[in-house]
Specification:
It contains 3 helices and 10 strands; from the N terminus they run E-E-E-H-E-E-E-H-E-H-E-E-E. The protein is of the alpha+beta class and 198 residues long.
C-alpha cells in the first residue's frame, strides 16, 4: 500500500519569481530567463542546463550528483539522519538543473501507488547558493507541467515541510492532511487537483 511518509519536499525561499521552462515532451534546454543570482543590482543570469529522465536513463554522474545534493540538503543542512535511498527512485522520473557542471536543483516524479495513492512530486531540493533566485519555483513549475503530461487529469500529492506550505499554496496545492512529524520536521500532505490555479 502506498504511504506518504519518507517523501521529502524542500525547495523555496519567499519571493521566488520564475517562469515556465520548455514544454513537456520537447526536452528541457538551457534556458532560464528571469532567474538571477545575487542582488537585483548586480545580478547575473542563471543559465541552468535542465534534464528530465527516467532512472535508467541517468548517467552514473547524474545519479551521484542527485544523491549528493539531496544529502547536502536533507541530511547535512537539516541535520536529519534518514535513509534517502528509499527504493522509489528506480520507479521515478528525475528533473534536475546543472549550473557549471553541478546539480543545483532536483526533484522526482512518481506514479500513483509508489508513495501515495496519487502521482507525486518529492525529493525536491535546491542548493543553498541558488535559493532566492526563482530556481525553486521554476523547478516546481516544470515538475507540475511534466506531471500533467505524464498523468493528465490526475491530482498531484506532495508531503511538504510545514514552513513551505505557503510556497506550495502559491502553486495551487492545498493542505490535505493533519500536520505530522517526519524525521523531527513538521510536515503536511498537500494536494493539487486538476484545473487548480494558484
Amino acid at each position: 500500500m502506498a504511504h506518504g511518509r519518507g517523501h521529502r519536499v524542500d525547495v523555496a525561499q519567499p519571493g521566488h519569481r520564475g517562469r515556465d521552462l520548455a514544454a513537456p515532451g520537447q526536452g528541457v534546454g538551457r534556458d532560464a530567463a528571469g532567474l538571477s543570482a545575487g542582488s537585483p543590482a548586480g545580478a547575473r543570469p542563471l543559465s541552468p542546463d535542465w534534464r528530465f529522465a527516467r532512472f535508467d536513463e541517468l548517467s552514473t554522474r547524474d545519479l551521484h550528483d542527485l544523491l549528493r545534493l539531496r544529502s547536502e540538503v536533507f541530511v547535512v543542512e537539516q541535520a536529519c539522519v534518514f535513509l534517502d535511498i528509499d527504493g522509489a527512485d528506480a520507479a521515478g522520473w528525475h528533473l534536475f538543473a546543472r549550473i557549471d557542471g553541478g546539480i543545483v536543483a532536483c526533484c522526482r516524479l512518481l506514479a500513483a501507488g509508489v508513495t501515495f495513492a496519487e502521482p507525486s512530486i518529492g525529493r525536491v531540493a535546491t542548493a543553498m547558493g541558488v535559493r532566492g533566485t526563482g530556481l525553486g519555483r521554476a523547478l516546481m513549475t516544470e515538475a507540475l507541467a511534466r506531471s500533467r503530461s505524464l498523468w493528465p487529469g490526475q491530482p498531484i500529492r506532495i508531503g511538504a515541510q510545514r514552513h513551505l506550505e505557503r510556497f506550495y499554496g502559491s502553486l495551487g496545492f492545498v493542505a490535505d492532511s493533519a500536520p505530522y512529524i517526519e524525521d523531527g520536521i513538521p510536515h503536511v500532505e498537500m494536494l493539487l487537483v486538476p484545473g487548480a490555479r494558484p
